[in-house]
Design a protein that fits this description.
Nucleotidyltransferase, domain 5, alpha/beta, 5-stranded mixed sheet, 2 domains
């Protein structure tokens, strides 16, 4: 039996790939940029190209399989992508079969939030727990559920779509086809939109005069106690807290972990999150649940889908 797998995390902005050993050691990495309007053929070619880069470094004979975590609802057993709000050209794609045909490797495809939850359960913040919720804050908002130590995907493979919990009755349209989803209020994309919308109310903020404000700009301003940035993170945390309060009431998890790029601003929004959970959840589960940062950073999804590839 070979001792490594290729593991990839395909998001709305980047494709990150690594070769992972059975103990979770990352041996080499590759990276590509993904465009939301790219065709499925282009995206698959980028995956194959990055995989071949990894194969050239490690050697084909040492690689057992490839696993890909995708920001999409999917059929896990069939390896078919059903709905990818941030990469819509992938809808309906038989990605597992295409990767097998082009790389000659057994392939495993899973939702990126579920993969992150598996990675954190294997080597990260939820080791030793049975029931946990993993939330990933990036270009969108993802999620993954672990029940009784195993990933829960639901009957149609769409369980864990935390980003599409509704928090506003007549809110912003979402790529999933609904509107008012928490993804539109707690993602990196949402932070930028809210900063632009609130700029007129904070004319003294340096952010108000920037036409090309980024999530990094808002984070840096927040560290300097800029009132506009702090207001944006307060709003973002409140909406995220609403969604997590629903999960506390429905699932009664031991632990909720928050990861993804936006989680780097933890201290700027987590107070608002905690307040909403206390306000909106039943007292006992709200007091019991642990709310902590994920430990594996950007590698959570990669390590999770690597573990799944080894298991399958």
């Amino acid at each position: 039996m070979n001792d490594t797998v290729i593991a990839a995390d395909l998001g709305g902005t980047n494709l990150r790939m690594a070769v992972v050993s059975r103990d979770g050691t990352i041996l080499t990495r590759a990276r590509r940029t993904t465009l939301s309007d790219a065709t499925s053929e282009v995206i698959v070619s980028e995956i194959v190209d990055a995989a071949n880069e990894c194969i050239a470094t490690i050697g084909h004979g040492k690689i057992e399989a490839i696993g890909v975590a995708v920001a999409a609802a999917l059929d896990f057993d069939a390896g078919i992508l059903k709905n990818s709000p941030n990469l819509p050209s992938l809808n309906g794609l038989r990605l597992r079969d295409q990767l097998f045909e082009r790389l000659g490797l057994r392939a495993v495809i899973d939702n990126d939030g579920t993969a992150a939850a598996v990675g954190e359960h294997w080597l990260g913040a939820t080791q030793g727990t049975k029931n946990s919720v993993c939330v990933t804050l990036g270009t969108g908002v993802g999620g993954g559920l672990i029940f009784d130590g195993k990933p829960y995907r639901g009957i149609d493979g769409t369980a864990g779509e935390i980003g599409h919990i509704g928090v506003e009755k007549e809110g912003y349209p979402c790529g999933c086809g609904s509107h008012g989803c928490v993804e539109q209020y707690a993602s990196a994309t949402a932070l930028v939109r809210m900063a632009k919308e609130l700029a007129k109310s904070f004319p003294g903020s340096p952010l108000a005069s920037k036409s090309d404000v980024t999530g990094a700009d808002i984070y840096d301003a927040g560290l300097q106690s800029d009132p506009l940035a702090l207001e944006v993170f307060s709003i973002m945390g409140a909406y995220l807290g609403m969604a997590l309060a629903d999960l506390v009431n429905v699932l009664n998890p031991e632990i909720i972990i928050v990861g993804g790029g936006v989680a780097g601003a933890w201290d700027l929004f987590i107070g608002s999150v905690s307040r909403e959970i206390v306000r909106r959840s039943f007292r006992e589960p709200a007091e019991r649940v642990k709310l902590i940062r994920a430990k594996l950073g950007d590698d959570a999804g990669i390590l999770g889908v690597a573990q799944l590839a080894f298991q399958r």
